[in-house]
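seq:
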Amino acid sequence: MNDKNVLMIAGEASGDLHGASLIRELKKLDSSLKIFGIGGDKMQAEGMELIYHINKMAFLGFAEVVKHLPFIKKVQNRLLNEVKKRNVKDVVLIDYPGFNLSIAKKLKQLEPENKIELIYYITPQVWAWGKGRVKKIKELFKKVLVVFPFEEKFFKERNVDAEFVGHPLIQEINGYNFLSKDQLIKKFDLNPAKEILLILPGSRKQEVKVIFPEAIKAALKLSNEIDMQVVVACSDNIDDKMFYELTNKKNFVVIKNHTYDLLKHSKFGIVKSGTSTLEAGLMELPMVIIYKTSRLTYTIGKSVVKIKNIGLSNIVLDEQVVPELIQNDANAEKIYATAKNILAEKDLLNQMKIKLSRLKKVLGEKNAPENAAKIIYSLLNGHKTS
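struct:
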């Protein structure tokens, strides 16, 4: 395994987080592994050679993807050339389905001279939309490593070699070195007398531009009535100045790189649908889930999504524990009214916390990055996993 080149692709902030812990575990098994591809600061810190940074890859919606097609093609061609140049045999793709399924097909077309094996870690949510993509995944990938227990059953019923490795967030949260509430307040000069009302507006600029203006109006109205302080958790790849440019209000604080501390010490969250809803749920933070996109993307999405909830906490618990405000409903008035209703009823707040506490039990305590790394390394070596 000396001088072993592995292409790894993660296209957004959550993928960078999960990719970093996977690289760390792979390097423990073999420090000579040379991992390159698309990732972020966290993956780079674990020793990955970045060909492209995720900052350049955060496209949202069909219109955005179409607009960026020449750049996407350029990125794919560069990666395919690197694969040929470095004689890569093993590729690990993390989530990011639009781009990853497209390049997976191109990578397989390099065969037979390259004989590339593809592994998918954190598969697309094809159980929710795009079940037609299951056939493509079966044809392209040697192994898929899934992070929800029901996904293993879903894929196996469709003859895809899938294995549940646990959810990486469990390990990331368990291993996180939390600030105390006092430390957090002191570090960011917050008001110790006021509870925190937290906004998580997403990790893509396009999402933030659409979602944040409505969320901040609702949050500031709530904070004035209930005497809370509004804090915005800013993703690594977004300039914190952007939030102040999107509103003429200035009475909120933007905090970068401390999302877990904020989730732990906040009273309530206004959370954009995505990985953050599961992070918030695992921290038992009462919240309202919001999501808004372009009319075209929403119309297309609605026609293919076949599940009743979009928030991951609700999907995993198979119940709408947390209210979801989607598209036209994700407006300041409805966000405000929904959040106020929960905050005004102590029983509702506590009931939500109790139900969210079941998430850890459902997801289990498996060490996902370690399990995934062992399976991947075994496949890299050509061993058959049990």
